[in-house]
């Protein structure tokens, strides 16, 4: 049972580039979330989804986009990477409790 | 109103000691209070959770104490072990509004032998 799988684990981007962070879960959970984790700041919610075809903004959505075409997948898109988006990104599924992936460490230079 | 304040930022405890991490919340509507444990390079994982209808919940060496009137809750780790060294996050949420899990800023715990 893989749980929540995030790819890639690490990535370095140049300013202005775009990329998609992948998240897949095999537990048939309806709820999925994207967080960013910055040192000393805890986890901030970027976007969430309550089911296929339904997404909504969290606390810090600017600069990101998401889609949810299937129950399993919830990709996060960065269109124009900025240094402020350097962070560790976590995907999670379910509500009580939330099951987290191991994160994507993203650096934008 | 949506903040969860966590302290201390870091904690050093000797093996066998008691580790205590405190959290305070503002929104009295919160009804779900989980604690997550995170090891380096890994995602957070649920450690223990409590609801406001009880004042204490214990699972092994881990205990949550909850004070509804003070809007505070804390994690106690008894007989702390080096394997407990991790970052701990408290959180608060609303069962009926599943986008509202608000995390504290985290406590880095180091347990020395």
Through-space gap between termini of chain A: 36 Å
Terminal-residue CA separation of chain B: 40 Å
- Label the CATH architecture of chain A: Sandwich
SSE pattern of chain B: EEEEEEEEEEE
Question: Structural class, from secondary structure content of chain A?
Answer: mainly beta
Percent range of helical residues of chain A: under 10%
Q: What is the approximate shape of chain B?
A: globular
Question: The biggest beta sheet of chain B, please?
Answer: 6 strands, mixed
The CATH class assignment of chain A is: Mainly Beta
Q: What would you say this structure looks like, in words?
A:
The complex is a heterodimer of chains A (109) and B (113). Chain A is mostly beta strands and 109 residues long. Chain A has one domain (14-104): Immunoglobulin-like, CATH 2.60.40.10. Chain A has strands spanning 4-7, 10-13, 19-25, 32-38, 42-51, 54-57, 64-66, 76-78, 87-93, 99-100, 104-108. In chain A, strands 2, 4, 5, 6, 9, 10 and 11 form a 7-stranded mixed beta sheet that branches. In chain A, strands 1-3-8-7 form a 4-stranded antiparallel beta sheet, with no helix packed on it. Chain B has a single domain, classed as Sandwich (Immunoglobulin-like). Chain B has no helices and 11 strands. The A-B interface holds A 4, 31, 33, 40-45, 48, 50, 56, 58, 90, 92, 95-98, 100-103 and B 6, 9, 32, 34, 41-46, 49, 89, 95, 98-99, 101, 103-106.
């Amino acid at each position: 049972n893989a749980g929540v799988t995030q790819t890639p684990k690490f990535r370095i981007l140049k300013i202005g580039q775009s990329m998609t962070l992948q998240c897949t879960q095999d537990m048939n959970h309806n709820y999925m979330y994207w967080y960013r984790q910055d040192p000393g700041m805890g986890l901030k919610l970027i976007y969430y989804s309550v089911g296929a075809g339904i997404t909504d903004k969290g606390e810090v959505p600017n600069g990101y986009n998401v889609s949810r075409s299937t129950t399993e997948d919830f990709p996060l898109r960065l269109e124009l990477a900025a240094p402020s988006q350097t962070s560790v990104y976590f995907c999670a599924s379910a509500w009580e409790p939330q099951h987290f992936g191991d994160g994507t460490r993203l650096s934008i230079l | 109103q949506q903040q969860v304040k966590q302290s201390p930022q870091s904690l050093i405890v000797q093996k066998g000691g008691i580790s205590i991490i405190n959290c305070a919340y503002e929104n009295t509507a919160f009804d779900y209070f989980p604690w997550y444990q995170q090891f380096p390079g890994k995602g957070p994982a649920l450690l223990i959770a409590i609801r406001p209808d009880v004042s204490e919940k214990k699972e092994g060496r881990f205990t949550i104490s909850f004070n509804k009137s003070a809007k505070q809750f804390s994690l106690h780790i008894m007989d702390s072990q080096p394997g407990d060294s991790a970052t701990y996050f408290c959180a608060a949420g609303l069962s009926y509004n599943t986008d509202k899990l608000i995390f504290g800023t985290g406590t880095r715990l180091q347990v020395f032998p």
